[in-house]
Specification:
alpha/beta; Urease, subunit C, domain 1; 2 domains; eight-stranded mixed β-sheet; 21% strand
């Protein structure tokens, strides 16, 4: 019995190795490298052992390679969702399925990597939209919070408003927790590629509410938290002995903030109003911390300041309406103006997993409102990769990991969809749960579906 099990395991290993070692050549394709080579009008890209081994107009197909004729289709790097709850949340209106927030027991110390479900049925849906990697970011109370509001049911709203909360008996909770990176490879039991890549912080209106109603109070509390983290890092032994002053945050939260104040881990700051953006830039300079801005609906007003500080921005190009007092100056060409000023812009869709397709459509919207096409394509591939330190993906270059998508047309057009998606050089299945349910319950002509 043991011998049989070992033999079966060895066979499975051989099959897995063989599959991953496949060589694939995509020919007759328009290749958007999002790199120095630019656009290759008609070329071939070769994927071998999970890497890109050749890309160009005059590339020979290796002997024994599986050939996919693109027939003029477009090949791009896999899309990277720069801020999402994919795999950590299932149904926005059902609180029990939402694991993208810590509740009220901790703040900066919450690690969303432990919430990731590699078997989430919505991962296939995202992958079928061309998404191959994502940054999974936490929100206050597992609800909306900050720049990207993602409303759930009345219970979630009450939790945000009434508990906004406190971590134990310490300071009000402004930090949402630590972000993680995932890759959407089918069948992988551990899709988290890196944890603790940033600490999310809600400022602006959301931060003011959590701090008791004042933006000024929120900034003071953040500076106090940084001071506590530095004091904690200088003398951990005294803290363990109870020989330090009282800190506003728990040990878990202080531990999470230490790499932030040391400049090793960035803050993902959700902020919307131009004046708040400038306050955040000033805070980062004074505290010597790295930041990434998320939201920034009025970012175009402070574009020169953001560019001078070298701070990247994650934005939703559809956020163009004055739906609150902190977005009165939002506009459709926000992305174009920020990019023209020299800001690294990553474009996102809704945090809601069902609407991740909006990311590339939002990039198309940015093009319609003045952003250069190549910059828009980079905003959903190369720029998110750079922001999150994912150096092996985001462009189509020799030596890069083969996260590649073949589209049946322009990827920034609404009627275009992938015809093949590769993660690590392995072609992904397209039979996600939604399609299976469709097929199961489709009513054949003159008959009831199988369920009946």
């Amino acid at each position: 019995m043991i011998r049989t099990t070992l033999f079966a395991g060895a066979c499975a290993l051989v099959l897995t190795t063989a599959a991953s070692a496949e060589t694939v050549a995509i020919t007759n394709a328009k290749i958007e490298t999002v790199a120095a080579a630019g656009t290759i009008a008609a070329g071939t890209i070769v994927l071998t052992d999970g890497k890109i081994t050749a890309v160009g107009a005059n590339v020979s197909v290796p002997s024994g390679a599986r050939v996919i004729d693109a027939k003029g289709g477009v090949v791009t790097p896999g899309l990277i969702a720069p801020s999402s709850n994919l795999s950590a949340s299932e149904i926005g209106g059902v609180r029990e399925t939402r694991d993208d927030g810590s509740g009220t027991e901790m703040s900066a110390g919450f690690d969303i990597a432990y919430s990731v479900n590699p078997d989430s049925p919505v991962i296939g849906l995202a992958r079928d939209g061309g998404v191959t990697s994502a940054a999974i970011t936490p929100t206050l109370s597992g609800g909306g919070g900050g720049a990207h509001r993602d409303d759930g049911d009345a219970e979630m709203e009450a939790l945000r408003e009434n508990t906004a909360g406190r971590a134990s008996d310490g300071d009000p909770r402004l930090f949402a927790g630590q972000a993680a990176l995932i890759r959407l490879a089918a069948g992988d039991p551990d899709i988290v590629t890196k944890a603790k890549v940033a600490v999310a912080l809600d400022l602006g209106q959301a931060g003011a509410r959590a701090a008791g109603g004042s933006r000024g109070a929120a900034i003071v509390l953040v500076k106090s938290a940084f001071e506590d983290a530095r004091a904690f890092a200088r003398n951990r032994s005294a803290f363990e002995k109870g020989a330090t002053r009282d800190f506003g945050l728990s040990r878990i939260d202080l531990e999470a903030l230490v790499p932030v104040v040391e400049g090793k881990t960035p803050l993902l700051v959700r902020v919307r109003r131009a004046s708040d953006i400038r306050q955040v830039l000033k805070l980062a300079a004074e505290e010597k911390v790295k930041i990434i801005l998320e939201g920034a609906e009025e970012g175009w007003i402070a574009a020169a300041d953001i560019a001078k500080a070298g701070v990247p921005v994650i934005i939703d190009t559809q956020a163009d309406l004055p739906d609150s007092f902190e977005t009165l100056a939002s506009r459709l060409d926000n992305a174009a103006r920020l990019q023209a000023a020299g800001v690294a812009v990553a474009i996102t869709g809704s945090r809601d997993f069902n609407n991740l397709r909006l990311q590339r459509l939002n990039a198309g919207l940015a093009v319609a409102n003045g952003m250069p096409y190549q910059a828009a394509l980079a905003s959903v591939t190369a720029v998110p990769a750079k922001i999150w330190g994912m150096s092996s993906v985001g462009t189509l270059e020799v030596g890069k990991t083969a996260d590649v998508v073949l589209w049946n047309g322009d990827p920034l057009e609404t009627t275009t969809w992938p015809t093949a998606v590769f993660v690590g050089g392995y072609q992904q299945p397209t039979d996600y749960r939604g399609l299976k349910l469709r097929d199961r319950y489709a009513r054949p002509a003159g008959a009831y579906p199988r369920a009946y």
